[in-house]
Amino acid sequence: MIQLTYNAIVIYPLNDSHSLEFTKKAIAVFLIFLPFSLLYINYLYVLQNKFFPSNRDGYVLTFEAIKLLQNKGKSFIHATRETKGKINRANLEQILSDIPKHRYTKYTSYNNLPNTFFEQCELSIEEDNKIYIIVSSTGSPASELISVFTKKEYNHVSISFDKDLKTIISYNGGNHVQQPGLNVEDLQSFYQKEDSNILVYSLQATREQKQKLLNKIRNINSEGSAYNGPTSIFRTQIN
């Protein structure tokens, strides 16, 4: 909440010098990590009180606790090595450049989905009795940063009405073309690094179920939708 309030009051609109503008954005990125720092401090506090309880006879330390601490240490070292490759200058610069497009005066996007998308979806309702869920590891800066905290390879999910994946949509940042919100995706957008991966799950769906889902998407498209990349990092960690 502090980070979102800071963005709304301090960052937008940016009418400062380049150095001051960069400083403000750097503070905004720092505030993204603040909740995780507090969570880590809380974790250390709980660890201390759980494995090193004090009593009249002194401190109690079990071999199980020692083994767990060793494993935690190894896991921390491994995570730190992985983090070095993901939290780099290029990724941070990209995230900083993306922050302005989440400005609150243009936070809700309307009618981002083209008519051709709905036409293809209508055809799939007649020809295909499945819905397709695409879970992806795209290698985008936001995806890389999210994976640092979730410790998961796949951090983005999309939906498609057809097996050829011509009707993929998801909540995303708009890929520098549309406003952040519910937008169409293409397969090329999933390939942003050499080891990008996607998993496609198919779910049985009746004609009525697919039509109901499409109607819901139409409503969202007309009423407006929003997506906040920085906030999604915190939300993903909570979920």
Descriptive keywords:
alpha+beta; single chain; two-stranded antiparallel ribbon; 239 residues; 54% helix; three-stranded antiparallel sheet; globular; 8 helices; disordered C terminus
Give the ordered list of helices and strands: HHEEHHHEHEEEEHH
Strand order of the largest sheet: 4-3-7
Low-confidence stretches: 230-239
* Largest sheet geometry: 3 strands, antiparallel
Distance between the termini: 17 Å
Considering DSSP H and I runs of 4 or more, what fraction of the residues is helical?
40-55%
Mean pLDDT over the residues: 76
Description:
With 239 residues, the protein is of the alpha+beta class. The chain is 54% helix and 15% strand. It is built from eight helices and seven strands, in the order H-H-E-E-H-H-H-E-H-E-E-E-E-H-H. Strands 4-3-7 form a three-stranded antiparallel beta sheet, with no helix packed on it. A two-stranded antiparallel ribbon has the order 1-2. The longest helix is centred in the N-terminal third of the chain and has 34 residues, at 18-51. The protein is globular, with a radius of gyration of 22 Å. The model is unreliable at 230-239 (pLDDT under 50).
